[in-house]
From TrEMBL:
Pathway: Protein modification; protein glycosylation. It is found in: Membrane. It is an enzyme of class 2 (transferase). It comes from Dreissena polymorpha. Residues 225-290 form the Galactosyltransferase C-terminal domain. Belongs to the glycosyltransferase 7 family. This is Beta-1,4-galactosyltransferase.
Length: 354
């Protein structure tokens, strides 16, 4: 009799579990409704009342990615992140803080899902060790929460050449393409920390200015948090095919300023103008700093800018290897560190011969 009762009890437990668990499993497989998406994309729990926003549209586009979809349903992907801007984290330790282990060189891909795109972050760099520690740790956190397949490349310009963002971005692009197949390229200042998990680190069909709200500019103009309307400085994303259409960045800007305005002109000339991330989402904390040595203001930027449209197919990605070469490539624990040397005279001579 006792055996019989035990059997009945076990049966009841199995049936109970089956009826409770099965719908939960299938629940993940159903497509989220527009209401789910609106709830998940709202910041304060109230769904957006209006038509589909561009953010919602983006989410709909990536919805076939099973993992993201599950995160979306749980609402986890879309929380405001808590950036780690104050901690000084070591760069030589794997799995330091709040993110999963990455492969040597900082490569990561989620285990349980197939990401739709492969993103690479390219950071122009020289002598900003504190900023680098902070951005690297924050990037791993946000990129993993977005379940992306990604790599992070830090491209350093050797001394004594005056700093030049464009040549570093172009060299980074070529190198990343040699190492793996990436389709989305994010060009990222070392000192801008993402403040919101909804900032999409995957590419749209248009080039995108991601750092739409920057605390540095917000101090001056809180309503806009941007210096001017065509501004695309800070963080941008674009597909590899589009970067090639622009012929990358200009190599011509040595010193501070101008490179970002030049690529904005290139994008317009190539008929793929930049769009901007929603300012409530593309929020970045600007780590404070002084102007670096070897990066004084570029006094030629005004005249270079005037000829940007005419020049764009003749100098940039297609000519960078004539003036720059790779000195070293080191697979650090959390990123790939590349050092390049460039010859300013070669660039200037090229310009004269255009
Ligand atoms: C603005 C733009 C930046 C670029 C720059 C002009 C924003 C948020 N950013 O930044 O995208 O257009 O003006 O050139 O408006 N760097 C080093 N070491 C150096 C010098 C520069 O690592 O010695 C790198 C680093 O990634 C830095 C970036 O270059 O974030 C931009 O230089 P910046 O931070 O000195 O210029 P900033 O803040 O005015
Ligand atoms: Mn800066």
């Amino acid at each position: 009799m006792r055996k019989f009762l035990l059997l009945v009890l076990a049966g009841a437990i199995v049936i109970g579990l089956y009826t409770y668990v099965t719908p939960k499993l299938f629940q993940h497989e159903t497509k989220p409704s527009l209401k789910d998406i609106r709830l998940a994309t709202s910041t304060n729990g109230n769904p957006h009342p209006n038509n589909l926003s561009s953010v919602e549209q983006t989410i709909l586009n990536v919805i076939s990615n099973k993992c993201k979809r599950e995160l979306l349903l749980k609402g986890e992907l879309f929380n405001i992140s808590k950036p780690d801007i104050l901690t000084d984290l070591p760069l030589n330790v794997l799995n330091t803080h709040d993110f999963l282990p990455v492969k040597k060189g900082g490569f990561y891909e989620p285990e349980n899902c197939e990401p739709l795109t492969r993103t690479v972050i390219i950071i122009p760099y020289r002598n900003r060790e504190q900023h680098l520690k902070i951005i690297i740790n924050n990037l791993h956190r946000i990129l993993q929460r977005q379940q992306l397949k990604y790599g992070i490349f830090v491209i350093e310009l050797s001394l004594p050449t005056t700093f030049n963002i464009g040549v570093l971005m172009n060299m980074g692009f070529l190198l990343a393409n040699n190492i793996s197949e990436y389709d989305c390229f994010v060009f990222h200042d070392v000192d801008l920390i993402p403040l919101d998990d909804r900032i999409a680190y995957h590419c749209d069909v248009s080039p995108k200015h991601m750092s739409a709200f920057n605390t540095k500019y917000a101090k001056v103009n809180i309503a806009k948090a941007l210096p001017y309307s065509t501004y695309v400085g800070g963080v941008i994303s674009l597909r590899g095919v589009d970067y090639k259409k622009l012929n990358g960045f200009s190599n011509a800007y040595f010193g501070w300023g101008g490179t970002d305005d030049d690529i904005e002109i290139r994008a317009k000339a190539a008929m793929i103008p930049f769009k901007r991330e929603n300012q409530n989402i593309g929020r970045y904390y600007a780590l404070p700093h002084q102007r670096d040595s070897n990066n004084t203001e570029n006094l030629l930027k005004g005249s270079l800018f005037k000829s940007a449209r005419k020049r764009y197919l003749n100098e940039g990605l297609n000519t960078v290897e004539k003036c720059c070469k790779r000195l070293s490539i080191v697979y650090k624990d959390l990123y790939v560190h590349v050092t390049v040397s460039c010859d300013e005279n070669i660039v200037m001579n090229q310009l004269l011969n255009l």
